[in-house]
TrEMBL record:
Keywords of this entry: Ligase, Magnesium
Name of this chain's protein: Glutamine synthetase
Superkingdom of this protein's organism: Bacteria
Residue intervals of the GS catalytic domain: 113-448
Source organism (scientific name): Billgrantia bachuensis
Signal peptide region: none
Pfam families assigned: Gln-synt_C (PF00120)
Keyword Nucleotidyltransferase: no
The protein's required cofactors: Mg(2+)
InterPro entries in UniProt: Gln_synt_N_sf, Gln_synth/guanido_kin_cat_dom, Gln_synth_cat_dom, Gln_synth_gly_rich_site
Amino acid sequence: MKDLESWLKERRITEVECLVSDITGIARGKITPVSKFMAEKGMRLPESVLLQTVTGDYVEDELYYSLLDPADIDMLCRPDISAVYPVPWALEPTAQVIHDCYDKMGNPIELSSRNQLKRVLALYAEQGWKPVVAPEMEFYLTKRCEDPDLPLLPPIGRSGRQETGRQSFSIDAANEFDPLFEDMYDWCEIQGLDIDTLIHEEGTAQMEINFRHGDPLMLADQVFLFKRTLREAALKHDVVATFMAKPITNEPGSAMHIHQSVLDAATGRSVFANEDGSMSQLFLHHIGGMQRFIPEALPLMAPNVNSFRRFLPDTSAPVNVEWGEENRTCGLRVPDSTPQNRRIENRLPGADANAYLAIAASLLCGYLGMMQQLNPSAPVQGRAFERRNLRLPFTLEQALERMEHCAELERYMGHRFVTGYVAVKRVENENFKKVISSWEREFLLLSV
């Protein structure tokens, strides 16, 4: 804490945003004067914020009080001194500090998404392994729109015109929003967010930011903060940035592709490669585990009703857990690389996923394959869309049911977490069902 206090004084910080990530990935916490932050060395929050839905509701009372203390007590949130960042868009010198959640006995709280990622990383550490990840974040820029019943429209760029048609990898189309992206890059640099390449994706005003590879916890923190940063930069320029999985009809969805590999912690060598550079058995088992368990863990990568709108045949998103080398029609792609850099790109998670949980789930599936020595199917040559085996759940309801009955997820992530997560998502799904869509009004109102 002395180092943290010095850091705050050097930057003349006056306020601290104390943050935790809820199940959805929303930043929750308190904004406090720096003097109070240092005096209390953390914050207290109701543990119930970890069971709050994206609509602000909670799970039913019987389940609520079975998962939480009946007195609805506070949890203790302690700052992680390795997760302290300035807030470059704030009017006053402000820092944001990511906290970890503990009960009054000092035990990590199971419902915390950041703690779940730490649990998975501890499993790897016990085996002498060190996972490495590199997320890719897709998102759309749109006009500001106050009416949620209206479809989203592309924003107006520097030229004074809206983008039309598909502009994949277009430099000029990306340059239309240079002032916004300059702020984004400047603010990320100030925070130390290790973003790399910016590209224009396939959709209209759809972009992608790549992160440099590194420690999974650090990268999850950075994705968590990047979403806040990009939204703030967009609002400054009177534009909206959205990470919805499928925000616009007839446009591609937005993914959070996760590149993952595993190193020997002692030597730094990839366990995915044999001495001669060929694919190791651990690599194949890792893929086998992802194929076996991703269909059960899918709600952690596709957490919303909207998430499943990405999974349509003959779109940019995969509809399978097949694997293949340099094959983007597979859910699990193995990019061309040197043996030391051999990795798997999990193309299934959506941009709307909680990065802590998506990375934790993706790594856990691979870990289970390595521990259980699961063999993968044969790699796919050509289009994987026609393959019928290893199909994923088609709806959020189906996916939640499979997650709820997965013994391995309950064993490694805990009963409270699996039960609480499924319950939160079911409440959100019920809220969704109460809303009548424009499609129903258009086609059923006068026809049935």
